[in-house]
Amino acid sequence: MTPLATLVERAGFAPRTPVAVARVVGDAVEESVTGAWPNGQPVTPSDRFYVASLAKQITGAAMALLVRDARIDPDRPVSDTVGGLPQWSTLVTPRQLAHHTGGLPPAGALEAQMTGDWTEALVFEALNDLAELPGSPGAAYRYSNLGYVLLARVIANASEMPFTQFAATQLFEPLGLDGIGFPDDPVGQPQLPLLGASLPLTHGDGGLWSTSRGFALWLQQQNRDTLGIADLVATAGRLNDGTSVDYGWGLGLRQRHGEALLIHGGEWQGAAAKAVRSPALGIAVVGMAAGAEFETLNRLVSAVLEDIA
């Protein structure tokens, strides 16, 4: 296979751009980092990148554990678990939130109006101000960050512990993963100055910081179905009329050469990330970049995937 450093160089990043990439082939995990942070320090393998919406697959896995253990009924109203929301919460289910079919405002609708940090308090203020949904639950696919922040609250209430603690103690620690997690406060992360005036501080839709190796090992464990939840997270959604939705629980569902390819990307100002994996082939790729265009990172991840295949 082509060295990862060579593939990074070919992707076309600007000089000194912080980039981390890792690939999984069976039991082997390989990583490469390059670039320098705004403080001038070179990127190291132990540095965590903000991976934005790659967090959604962690949220989907957390919900799957609770569904498997009969602590969440995915088809009961959200209002059963999260009180105090408007009447629409009696019509939306956790399953619909996970598949982005709950009828909530799409990604970008609230973020575009934001003047401060993206926080859970801001999201729940918006949810409480939402007298009615812009769409009927189950009628259409509408990618919604608000839905995943709400889903994280469902998980927290059902598990009776903070979402960040549940992810740490029920997902990352049992899998023996280091270098990945949801910090309550990202102060001190070298990427932070690149994330703009509004910081991403919610959990569920984002909030995840990881090394490339840490996330690659997460992908490897999911390929192996170590948690025993593959049948939940990788099942396509369905609309009320029976139409299939090519999105599972925090995972985009695609095909490559006849095999399932599970994908997701993530973006924030100053942050880009993408992860792909194929359980049948036992391969995975994750790429992270700071201060680069998503398309440049996407080109790198695609090149690494093709190189493996």
Secondary structure elements and pairings:
Layout: H1 4-11, E1 19-25, E2 28-34, E3 49-50, H2 55-68, H3 94-98, H4 120-129, H5 145-159, H6 163-172, E4 180-181, E5 209-210, H7 212-223, H8 230-233, E6 237-238, E7 244-245, E8 252-256, E9 259-268, E10 271-278, E11 283-290, H9 294-308
Antiparallel strand pairs: 1-2, 1-11, 3-5, 4-5, 6-7, 8-9, 9-10, 10-11
CATH architecture: 3-Layer(aba) Sandwich
The number of helical elements comes to: 9
CATH topology: Beta-lactamase
What's the SSE pattern? HEEEHHHHHEEHHEEEEEEH
Query: What's the mean pLDDT score?
Result: 96
Number of individual domains: 1
| Alpha-beta content class | alpha+beta
Shape: globular
